[in-house]
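Quick one, T. Sequence first:
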Amino acid sequence: MNTPAHLLLGAAAFGRPDRRGTFSAALLGAFAPDISLYLMVAVSIWGMGIPAETVFRELYYSDAWQAVFAVDNSFILWGLALGFSIWRRSAVFTAFCGAAMLHLALDFPLHTHDARQHFWPLTNWVFESPFSYWDNAAYASVVSPIALSMSAGALVIIWSRTKALWLRGVSLVLFLMELMSSGVWRFIF
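C-alpha cells:
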C-alpha cells in the first residue's frame, strides 16, 4: 500500500483521541517500516545525485538495501516490540508498534518482486505475492481501488472519533495524498 494509506489505517486502528499521544504514535508507527526507504531514496537522489531509475531499478534490490528493509519490516522484531508494549501496558507504545505491525500485515500480500524479508532474523525468505498495490501486471487496477476505499473508511472512522481540527486536518491531507498517489502509481506503472 502507499504510505498515506498505511498512516490512515494505522491511525484509525490504534489512534485514540481519548488516550493522549496514541494518534501521533500510531501515525509514526505506521510510517516506521517505510522510513528507511524514504531516507535512502532521498540521500541517493538528492544528496548523491543518483538517477531515480537507478535507485528504484538497482539500489532498491541490492543486498545492502534489502538488509535494511529486513530489519524495519520484520514481523519478528515488531511482534516482540508489540508484545513488550502490551506487557508494559503502554498505550502510546502499543499504538506505535500496533500500527507498524498493521503496516506489515497489509504490505505482505501486496508486494511482488519488490517484497521484503518479513521474517528476518529467523529466515531471509521472501513471499512474492501475485498481487500488487502499484503494478498493473499484478492486479493493481483491482487492489488500488480497494486500498483507496479502506483509506476513505479510515478517514470516516477518525472523523467520527474526534472533533479536534488538527486530527481531522491531518487525516484529510493524508486521504488526499492517497487519492493522488494511488492514481499516480497506476499511471506510471
